[in-house]
Specification:
The protein has about 280 residues and is an alpha+beta fold. The chain folds into two domains: about 120 residues, Alpha-Beta Plaits (2-Layer Sandwich); about 150 residues, Alpha-Beta Plaits (2-Layer Sandwich), CATH 3.30.70. The chain is built from seven helices and twelve strands. A five-stranded antiparallel sheet has the order 3-6-1-8-7. The chain has a four-stranded antiparallel sheet with strand order 10-11-9-12, with helices on both faces. β10 and β11 form a beta hairpin. α1 crosses α3 and α4 crosses α7. The longest helix is centred in the last third of the chain and has 17 residues.
Length: about 280
């Protein structure tokens, strides 16, 4: 059953972060889990299911003197979300919550630490998402891509640089079918997505996100591993003749997106979204 944990944190001191800090958060959360349940931490890291999604920090940052960096302010609070879609979500959830909440452990990043001040969680079953979708009459879904979204074009190394409907919903469909109960797997195909949805970008820009570092032996220091993608807001409007089953599938996948993230590197801060539904004014 998909779960989402919202953590509101505060730094004890000012310290610097890269603009793409998701990979640091991911490493820190794995370390937190490892101290509580090493098996759950290893499973989350090794799983081919993209079992966790982690958003970037949201809050007011100070300017850094270094390019592509920002500084957290101890006077401010910073929020991020962890989505869990893995079938072992109970073990993963417990391995995160127990150290951070019950033991008041800090989240240790490269140059400083975040202390958790508030925690909230929500959960929603796959059956609930499908039932909810069947009761909606929305004519569009709107995605706010909160962090750089990196979607590979099929099995190539080419990255999508535009929030195309086929790319976004094919990514979500693959994530859904990888973790949902067998009876709820969807057979929505790319032609149906392209035929019955239209995208309307509302704001849009391209970015590179740092998803990891690797030690460069030639230069003697770590170098970043970057992924390209897009960020912004895009509305996906149903065609008038869109069948009910296609509408329901798209709405359920949109609901699921807030837990799973969109595209690759979602555990490292990429592909975090907020989704709203509505009616097109005519």
């Amino acid at each position: 059953m998909p779960q989402k944990i919202t953590l509101i944190t505060r730094p004890q001191t000012a310290f610097e972060l890269p603009y793409s800090e998701g990979y640091q958060l991911y490493s820190a959360i794995l370390n937190v889990m490892r101290g509580c349940d090493e098996a759950a931490s290893k499973h989350a890291h090794d799983s081919s299911l993209s079992s966790m999604s982690i958003s970037t920090l949201e809050g007011k940052f100070r300017r850094s003197q270094r390019p592509k960096c920002k500084v957290v302010d101890p006077a401010g609070r910073y929020t991020f979300h962890i989505g869990i879609t893995d079938p072992k979500e109970i073990e993963i959830f417990r391995a995160i919550i127990q150290p951070l909440v019950l033991q008041e452990q800090e989240i240790i990043l490269d140059k400083g630490a975040l202390r958790v001040e508030e925690v909230a969680s929500s959960t929603e079953g796959f059956e609930e998402m499908v039932a909810w979708a069947g009761m909606q009459g929305s004519s569009f879904v709107e995605f706010d891509f909160r962090s750089t979204t990196c979607i590979q074009y099929r099995n190539t190394k080419v990255m999508e640089m535009f929030p195309h409907r086929e790319a976004v919903f094919s990514s979500l469909l693959a994530k859904w079918n990888a973790v949902c109960p067998e009876a709820l797997k969807m057979s929505l195909d790319r032609d149906e997505i392209s035929r019955y949805l239209m995208e309307e970008p509302l704001s849009y820009e391209t970015h590179s996100a740092m998803v990891n570092t690797v030690f460069d032996r030639a230069k003697g220091h770590p170098r970043p591993i970057l992924k390209q993608g897009f960020q912004g807001r895009c509305r996906y409007i149903f065609a008038k003749e869109a069948p009910k089953d296609v509408r329901n599938a798209v709405l359920a996948l949109a609901k699921f997106a807030e837990y799973s993230g969109v595209g690759s590197a979602v555990a490292r801060g990429c592909g975090a979204v907020r989704v709203t539904m509505g009616e097109v004014e005519r």
